[in-house]
């Protein structure tokens, strides 16, 4: 299968999701899932929960997830997107059912939403080391589908975002697990110095 066949498949898959799945109730749900403000509110609630209950393990997850999202976002938005220049479907196709107010930045490959959502869940799974939370992997897939559904990403944008986010999360989580005691000692020193 050549590049042109893959791109053609991607366009057809995009149109299938963007056009054939649409109905009013699902539109509202997908826009909510796709809206980064919804996820920011959830992250803020999680931060308050960690702070209020002084749960060290959850706080570690929160900080590692924050570092991971920063790296993933930088990698996708500042390096890969400007290098590959793949336009979003809403800039390339006339028949897009665009549900958001705007199409977003010019380039869509890879999807930052997909990368960041996968990164967070992989961090949670790695740091809890408990695969009973594996069902959480549904969340990035719902986010990814929502990005295609609302008309701002092709399916391959989302799939590659999952790969980037998951890869960065595995690296950062592994580094944290490997060097956890040194990292925590360093942070403890920084806190003591700030207190003085």
Describe what you observe in this structure.
The protein is an all-alpha fold. It has one domain. It is 76% helix and 0% strand. It contains nine helices and no strands.
In brief:
It contains nine helices and no strands.
Write the layout of secondary structure elements.
Layout: H1 3-20, H2 24-34, H3 36-53, H4 56-84, H5 89-92, H6 112-128, H7 138-149, H8 155-178, H9 180-195
Helix pairs in contact: 2-7, 3-4, 4-6, 4-8, 6-7, 6-8, 7-8
Largest sheet geometry: none
Strand content: under 5%
Radius of gyration: 19 Å
Tally of helical runs:
9
Number of strands: 0
Backbone structural class: mainly alpha
Which percent bin holds the helix content?
Answer: over 70%
Taking the alpha carbons of the first and last residues, their distance comes to: 63 Å
Instruction: Work out the count of structural domains.
Output: 1
Mean pLDDT over the residues: 87
The unreliable regions are none
String of helices and strands: HHHHHHHHH
Could you say which overall geometry the principal axes of the C-alpha atoms support?
A: elongated
């Amino acid at each position: 299968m050549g590049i042109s066949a893959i791109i053609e498949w991607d366009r057809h898959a995009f149109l299938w999701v963007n056009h054939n799945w649409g109905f009013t109730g699902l539109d509202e749900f997908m826009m909510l899932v796709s809206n980064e403000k919804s996820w920011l509110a959830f992250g803020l609630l999680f931060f308050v929960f960690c702070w209020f209950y002084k749960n060290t393990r959850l706080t570690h997850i929160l900080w590692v997830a924050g570092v991971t999202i920063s790296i993933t976002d930088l990698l996708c938005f500042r390096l890969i997107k400007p290098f590959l220049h793949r336009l979003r479907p809403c800039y390339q196709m006339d028949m897009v059912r665009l549900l958001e107010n705007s199409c977003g930045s010019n380039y869509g490959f890879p999807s930052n939403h997909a990368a960041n959502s996968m990164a967070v869940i992989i961090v949670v799974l790695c740091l809890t080391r408990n695969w009973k939370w594996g069902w959480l992997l549904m969340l990035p897939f719902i986010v990814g589908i929502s990005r295609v559904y609302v008309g701002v990403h092709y399916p391959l944008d989302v799939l590659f975002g999952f790969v980037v986010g998951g890869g960065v999360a595995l690296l950062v989580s592994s580094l944290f697990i490997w060097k956890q005691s040194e990292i925590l000692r360093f942070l403890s020193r920084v806190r003591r110095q700030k207190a003085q």
